[in-house]
């Protein structure tokens, strides 16, 4: 159970400024439902150029909702120049702290605000325009610039901290070597040479028993860490040929986005880990 402050619980149970604004001046969107968190932030300026109204819509955990709610309260009445200086650390401080593993929720709020201000100034409506920015974590769509920004603002020194603040490396873990390289560069250390990953065995050639073991291993390494971030889990029910039957547990059991998680995370990661694009995941009650 996460150790939430009273302020976090208050903003989670009684979120402020939820909803939409008709004809907003700026709109920013970050995250994706398949990744477990998504935030849409919008604001309206008053005649004096200050933020007169701000609303948000968030799909995510308690920390994501609380961080979004807190951010809207913080920036109301600010100029855009003042709002642009708000960092994820400011959001966490406003909430009397967040669990280390949930700091990525405050980062999401900061990025949504940056995107909304950029939308107002440039008209850009893209969720995130990073054509020249290398994608580091494919599981959670985290780019190098996001990791660098989190490292510099929050003075991060370990891969585990980067995962807590950005989610990068929190699922399959294949990008941890790249994250370490970024840390080494930012902190001025010599980067270790990453070991070559072992090629996965052909799934179709495995015996039924070995298929079960292979799927369980893939779920442990590739899927469960991502679900555990928001209090969820997955149980293997059966493997028949290339059909894998699973059951969601915890917070995932009654999640409205279960179908997205089934295809966008579980099936995708099993296919990648087991080297077979014909693996199909079925969700059973």
Describe this structure in words.
The protein is α+β, with helices and mostly antiparallel strands. The chain has 3 domains: 6-122, Sufe protein. Chain: A (Alpha-Beta Complex), CATH 3.90.1010; 135-187, BFD-like [2Fe-2S]-binding domain (Arc Repressor Mutant, subunit A); 203-283, GMP Synthetase, Chain A, domain 3, CATH 3.30.300. Helices cover 43% and strands 18% of the residues. It is built from 10 helices and 8 strands. It has helices spanning 6-13, 62-75, 80-83, 88-94, 103-122, 144-154, 159-166, 176-187, 208-228, 258-274; strands spanning 26-32, 37-45, 51-59, 135-137, 142-143, 232-240, 243-250, 280-283. The strands form 3 sheets. Strands 1-2-3 form a 3-stranded antiparallel sheet. Strands 6-7-8 form a 3-stranded mixed sheet, with helices on one face. Helix 1 crosses helix 2 (62-75) and helix 4 packs across helix 5 (103-122).
Question: What share of residues are in beta strands?
Answer: 15-25%
CATH topology annotation of the largest domain = Sufe protein. Chain: A
CATH class of the largest domain: Alpha Beta
Separation of the first and last Cα atoms? 25 Å
Helix content: 40-55%
The secondary-structure element order is HEEEHHHHEEHHHHEEHE
Shape: globular
CATH architecture of the largest domain, by name, is Alpha-Beta Complex
**Overall domain count:** 3
What class do helices, strands and sheet pairing give?
Answer: alpha+beta
List unreliable stretches of 5+ residues: none
Cα-atom radius of gyration: 20 Å
Count the E strands: 8
Nearest-integer average pLDDT: 87
| Biggest β-sheet description | 3 strands, antiparallel
Number of helices: 10
Taking strands numbered 1, 2, ... along the chain, how are they ordered across the largest sheet?
1-2-3
